[in-house]
Task: inverse folding
C-alpha cells in the first residue's frame, strides 16, 4: 500500500476500489526498476512488502513465505517443524490453579513458561503471595505456601522434583497449599 | 617419454590422491594416460549426467570407489521437481555387469531405489562402504538387503536422507558373521530398530569407530552400547532425556566417561538440557560438535557446555545460541575452523536469532575460522568489513539473511561494500553465498577479487545484466553458478557461451532469460545440456521464444541428452 507521507494522509488505504486490500495495483508493474522484482511479486502469499521502499520500516514487514527461502534443506526443516508440532502438542496446556483460601480458581498455560522459577514467579504475581525457595530435601522454605500438582496417576506431588519437561507433560492441575497442611512437608 | 617401467610410475601415481592432480597426470602423454587409468581406484563425478557408466567403466577398469552427485544444489530447497532425475540404478546395473570390483559408493542428492540397493548388495563381493547423503527413494528393505548380503561391510552412513522405514528389522539382517563394521550412522531413520540386534551388532564390531543413533534408541540402550564400544571416536546420540539424579543417569555418566576417544559428538535429537553435565567429562576432547538438531538446548545450559569444549574445530549450532552465546564460543574455542549457525525458527518472529554482533565476536576470537554458514536476522557493512579483516582465511563464506533483500539496518545501504571486503581480503575463497540487499556493485568486486572462487550462490540481487557479466568475465575458476530471482537476461546469458563448458553447471530460476535465449545457448554449444524445468500444469510447452523461462539448468556433458527426464523437463 503506497503511503503518502507528505500530507500525512493515507489516501490509498481509505480509497474504495474493487479488489482485496493489499493487492497490487496495475501501475505498480512499471516500477522505477522494471527488471527488479519486489518481494511481493515473488511471494506466494501476496503480502505486500515493497523492497523498493526508501524509508526504513521500524516494524519488520509481515514474513511472506517465498518458495525455497530461507535456503534450508527440507530434511532439516521437516525435523524442526516436527519438533515444534510435538512440543506444541504435548503442552500448550491450560491447567486449573487453586489456592487454599481463595474464592475462585485461575487457569494458566504451562507452555508459556520454560522453567520452574518462571512458573513460580508467575504464580506469585497472579495470587499476590510468596512461595519461597525450593529445596530437594526440605521442600519450599520461607513461606506458608507450597505449590503442588496432581499428576497423571492422580497423586498430589510437590512442584519441582522432576525435570521440567516431565512436569509439564504430567501435570493435570495445580494447587497451592497453605498453612498447617504444608508444615509436615518440610522446614519450619 | 618413459624412462621408468610402468610399475614404477604406477607406484608414484598411487601416492597422488587428489582427483584434480590425477586428472592432470593423465593429460601429460598417452603413456601416462594409460598407466593412470589402469591404476585409478577412486573416481569423483560431480554431475551424474556429465558422463555415462559405460564410458566410466571403459576408462577405469580398476575402479573401486565411486562418488556420484545427482540433483542440482537448489533441489535441497524444493526448487526442483521430485522426479527430475539422478537415478543410481543404471550405474549400479552397468557396474554389476562389467565385473568391476566396486568397494565403495558415495551418493549425494540421488534417487536410490530398494531395487538398486539390492542389486548393489548382491553384485560386489568385496563391497565395503555405502554413504548416502540427501538421497531418497529407498526404504528399510533396501537397507536390509545391504545388511544381509554385504559380508565385509565396513561403513553404512546415512546422512539426512528421506527414508521410508516403516519396518525396523533391517538391523537384525546383519549376520552373526559380520564383525567388520567401522561406521554405522542411521540417525535420519524415523522408525524403531531392533534394540537387541543393535546391541549384539555393536558387541561384535571391535573396529566400530563411528556410531550415530536415531531418536528411538532409548537411554538404557545408549548406555549399554557405550559400555560395549568405549573405543568410539564419533558418537551421535539420539534421545537424551533422563533424570540427572536417577540410577540410569549415573550409569550413563560412567559409560560416557569410559569413552576417552570420542572427538566428535552429534545428535541430541531429543534433549533435556539439565542432563548435559554428564557429557562434560568428554567435552575437552571434542573437535566436532553438532547441536543443530537440538532446539531444546539454549541459554546457560548451552553456553556451559561450550565452555568445556576448548579444542573445538567444527561447531554446528542453532541460532538460539544468540550473539551472547557466540561470544562464549569466541572466548572458548580458539581452534575453531568451521562454524554453521542454522535458524531454529525460519518463519518466526526472530526472537532467538543471531545478528552481525555474534559473527564479529567469533571472527575476533577465532583467527583460524575458514568456513562459515550463517543464518541471521541482519548484517551490516561495518561488521562484514571487520570480519574480513579478522579472518582473511575464509575458504567458504555463506551468509543468509533471513529477509532476503534486507539492507544494512544501520545505514540503510546495500551490503555491496561488506561482501566486497570479504572477497578482497579472503584470497583463498572458493565458495560464496550472498544475501541481503545487493546491487551490481558487489558483482564488480567479486569479478575483480574472487580469483579462486569456484561456487557462487546468488538470490534476489543485482540491478542489471552487468552483475552476471562481471562474474562470468572475472571469476576464472568458477565451476558452479546458481542464481535465483535476479534481473539477469539473455544478453548476460549469451555474452560468452563458451564459458559454460569450463564450468560444471549453471542454474537460473525466476530471472529474465527467455526460451529464445536458452535455445541459442543450446544451439551454439552442443557439449551442453540445456534443461528447462516447467512445473506448471501445461501439457505442452509454450513455444513462444519471448517467454521467460521459470527454471533453467545447464551443464556440460560428454554424452548428450539424457533419456530419463520427466515431462516437466525439456532438454533443448
Result:
Amino acid at each position: 500500500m503506497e503511503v503518502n507521507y507528505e500530507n500525512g494522509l493515507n489516501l490509498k488505504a481509505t480509497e474504495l476500489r474493487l479488489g482485496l486490500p493489499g493487492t497490487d495495483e496495475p501501475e505498480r508493474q512499471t516500477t522505477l526498476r522494471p527488471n527488479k522484482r519486489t518481494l511481493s511479486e515473488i511471494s506466494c502469499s501476496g503480502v505486500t512488502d515493497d523492497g523498493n521502499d526508501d524509508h526504513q520500516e521500524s516494524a519488520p514487514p509481515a514474513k511472506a513465505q517465498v518458495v525455497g527461502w530461507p535456503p534450508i534443506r527440507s530434511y532439516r526443516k521437516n525435523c524442526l517443524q516436527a519438533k515444534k508440532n510435538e512440543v506444541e502438542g504435548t503442552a500448550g496446556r491450560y491447567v486449573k490453579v487453586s489456592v487454599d483460601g481463595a474464592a475462585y480458581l485461575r487457569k494458566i498455560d504451562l507452555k508459556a513458561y520454560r522453567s520452574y522459577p518462571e512458573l513460580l514467579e508467575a504464580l506469585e504475581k497472579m495470587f499476590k503471595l510468596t512461595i519461597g525457595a525450593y529445596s530437594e530435601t526440605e521442600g519450599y522454605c520461607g513461606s506458608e505456601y507450597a505449590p503442588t500438582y496432581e499428576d497423571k496417576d492422580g497423586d498430589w506431588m510437590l512442584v519441582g522434583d522432576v525435570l521440567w519437561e516431565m512436569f509439564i507433560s504430567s501435570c493435570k492441575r495445580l494447587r497451592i497449599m497453605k498453612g498447617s497442611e504444608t508444615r509436615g512437608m518440610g522446614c519450619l | 617419454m618413459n624412462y621408468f617401467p610402468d610399475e614404477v610410475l604406477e607406484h608414484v601415481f598411487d601416492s597422488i590422491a587428489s582427483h584434480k592432480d590425477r586428472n592432470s597426470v593423465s593429460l601429460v602423454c598417452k603413456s601416462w594416460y594409460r598407466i593412470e587409468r589402469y591404476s585409478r581406484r577412486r573416481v569423483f563425478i560431480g554431475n551424474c549426467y556429465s558422463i555415462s557408466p559405460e564410458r566410466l567403466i571403459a576408462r577405469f577398469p580398476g575402479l573401486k570407489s565411486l562418488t556420484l552427485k545427482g540433483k542440482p544444489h537448489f533441489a535441497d530447497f524444493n526448487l526442483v521437481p521430485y522426479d527430475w532425475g539422478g537415478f543410481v540404478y543404471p550405474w549400479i546395473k552397468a557396474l554389476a555387469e562389467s565385473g568391476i570390483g566396486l568397494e565403495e559408493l558415495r551418493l549425494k542428492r540421488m534417487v536410490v531405489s530398494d531395487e538398486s540397493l539390492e542389486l548393489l548388495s548382491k553384485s560386489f563381493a568385496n563391497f565395503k562402504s555405502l554413504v548416502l547423503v540427501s538421497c531418497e527413494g529407498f526404504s528399510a528393505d533396501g537397507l536390509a538387503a545391504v545388511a544381509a548380503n554385504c559380508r565385509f561391510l565396513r561403513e553404512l552412513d546415512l546422512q539426512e536422507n528421506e527414508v521410508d522405514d516403516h519396518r525396523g528389522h533391517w538391523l537384525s539382517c546383519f549376520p552373526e558373521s559380520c564383525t567388520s563394521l567401522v561406521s554405522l550412522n542411521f540417525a535420519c531413520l524415523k522408525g524403531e530398530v531392533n534394540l537387541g540386534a543393535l546391541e549384539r551388532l555393536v558387541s561384535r564390531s571391535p573396529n566400530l569407530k563411528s556410531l550415530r543413533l536415531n531418536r528411538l534408541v532409548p537411554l538404557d540402550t545408549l548406555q549399554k552400547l557405550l559400555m560395549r564400544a568405549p573405543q568410539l571416536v564419533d558418537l551421535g546420540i539420539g534421545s537424551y532425556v533422563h533424570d540427572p539424579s536417577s540410577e540410569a543417569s549415573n550409569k550413563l555418566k560412567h559409560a560416557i566417561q569410559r569413552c576417552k576417544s570420542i572427538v566428535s559428538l552429534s545428535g541430541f535429537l531429543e534433549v533435556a538440557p539439565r542432563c548435559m553435565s554428564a557429557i562434560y567429562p568428554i567435552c575437552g576432547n571434542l573437535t566436532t560438535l553438532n547441536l543443530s538438531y537440538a532446539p531444546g538446548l539454549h541459554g546457560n545450559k548451552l553456553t556451559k557446555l561450550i565452555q568445556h569444549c576448548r579444542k573445538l574445530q567444527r561447531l554446528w549450532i542453532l541460532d538460539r545460541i544468540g550473539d551472547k552465546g557466540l561470544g562464549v564460543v569466541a572466548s572458548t574455542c580458539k581452534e575453531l575452523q568451521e562454524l554453521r549457525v542454522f535458524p531454529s525458527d525460519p518463519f518466526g518472529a526472530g526472537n532467538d536469532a543471531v545478528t552481525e554482533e555474534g559473527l564479529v565476536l567469533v571472527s575476533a576470537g577465532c583467527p583460524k575460522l575458514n568456513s562459515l554458514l550463517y543464518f541471521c536476522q541482519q548484517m551490516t557493512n561495518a561488521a562484514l568489513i571487520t570480519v574480513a579483516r579478522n579472518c582473511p582465511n575464509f575458504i567458504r563464506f555463506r551468509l543468509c539473511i533471513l529477509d532476503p533483500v534486507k539492507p544494512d539496518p544501520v545505514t540503510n545501504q546495500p551490503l555491496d561494500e561488506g561482501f566486497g571486503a570479504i572477497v578482497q581480503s579472503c584470497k583463498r575463497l572458493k565458495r560464496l553465498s550472498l544475501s541481503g540487499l545487493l546491487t551490481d556493485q558487489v558483482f564488480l568486486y567479486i569479478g575483480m577479487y574472487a580469483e579462486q572462487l569456484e561456487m557462487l550462490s546468488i538470490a534476489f540481487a543485482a540491478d542489471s545484466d552487468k552483475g552476471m557479466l562481471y562474474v562470468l568475465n572475472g571469476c576464472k575458476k568458477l565451476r558452479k553458478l546458481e542464481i535465483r530471482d535476479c534481473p539477469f537476461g539473455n544478453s548476460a546469458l549469451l555474452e560468452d557461451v563458451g564459458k559454460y563448458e569450463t564450468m560444471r553447471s549453471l542454474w537460473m530460476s525466476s530471472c529474465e532469460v527467455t526460451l529464445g535465449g536458452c535455445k541459442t545457448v543450446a544451439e551454439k554449444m552442443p557439449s551442453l545440456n540445456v534443461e528447462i524445468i516447467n512445473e506448471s500444469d501445461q501439457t505442452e510447452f509454450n513455444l513462444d521464444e519471448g517467454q521467460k523461462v521459470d527454471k533453467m539448468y545447464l551443464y556440460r556433458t560428454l554424452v548428450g541428452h539424457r533419456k530419463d527426464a520427466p515431462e516437466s523437463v525439456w532438454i533443448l
